[in-house]
Backbone:
């Protein structure tokens, strides 16, 4: 697997999509989605210059964060169970999946106990896909107002996952819809809320997301290749 070549190709596509949209390519952060990948495989991406990684499961993040270099930046993009919050710490750069009041309350409680302020994105089910988590569009404003009252939460933007079987036109439309929601809500002045980030776009659709204003894209398959479905475990340490 040519991870160096794959990363270079993705970076070139990011550059081209940004230029086409009149945007600065350096304003777009590429997350390498390393879920289910061995530490050895992630190390190859690190050696190729990648520093920003994303995990779905807390246990995988726990294992990898202690084995990989300290200058890696770690994002959590999977649905976060409330009983897993106690295992997180300041080494998590951004939680992309704040999607319900129970998680908000658990993060606040754990943050207060351990003096941690959690950086988050609110996940929005903009496509109203029954297979996806996230708040509905009309729920986001009230949720942000609620989140603004929590001292140990910071909301830095919105995240969405494209609908699985949507057409390219529909997918780009969903990304545009999320950007317009962000632009509308960022006019509100709320403590602890600064909607500067849009996390949207994955391997199959990140160029459309960039055209619609994404600041963080999440790419796994185009970097690491097709992944084996390992629901409960993954190969650690390259073994």
Residues:
């Amino acid at each position: 697997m040519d991870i160096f070549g794959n990363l270079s190709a993705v970076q070139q596509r990011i550059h081209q999509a940004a230029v086409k949209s009149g945007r600065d390519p350096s304003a777009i952060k590429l997350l390498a989605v390393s879920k289910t990948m061995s530490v050895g495989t992630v190390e190859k991406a690190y050696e190729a210059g990648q520093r920003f990684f994303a995990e779905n499961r807390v246990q995988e993040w726990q294992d990898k964060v202690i084995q990989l270099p300290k200058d890696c930046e770690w994002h959590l993009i999977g649905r976060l169970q409330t009983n897993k919050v106690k295992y997180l710490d300041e080494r998590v750069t951004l939680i992309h999946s704040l999607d319900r009041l129970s998680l908000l309350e658990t993060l606040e409680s754990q943050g207060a106990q351990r003096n941690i302020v959690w950086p988050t994105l609110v996940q929005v089910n903009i496509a109203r896909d029954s297979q996806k988590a996230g708040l509905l569009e009309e729920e986001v404003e009230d949720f942000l107002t609620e989140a603004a009252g929590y001292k140990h939460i910071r909301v830095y933007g919105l995240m969405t996952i494209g609908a699985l079987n949507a057409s390219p036109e529909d997918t780009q439309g969903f990304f545009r819809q999320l950007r317009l929601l962000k632009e509308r809500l960022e006019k509100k002045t709320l403590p602890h809320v600064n909607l500067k980030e849009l996390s949207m776009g994955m391997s199959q659709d990140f160029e459309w997301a960039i055209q619609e204003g994404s600041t963080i894209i999440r790419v796994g398959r185009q970097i690491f290749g097709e992944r084996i479905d390992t629901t409960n475990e993954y190969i650690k340490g390259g073994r």
Observations:
- Residues 3-20 form the longest helix (18 residues).
- The first strand starts at residue 29 and ends at 33.
- The two ends are 16 Å apart (CA to CA).
- Residues 58 and 88 are 7 Å apart (CA to CA).
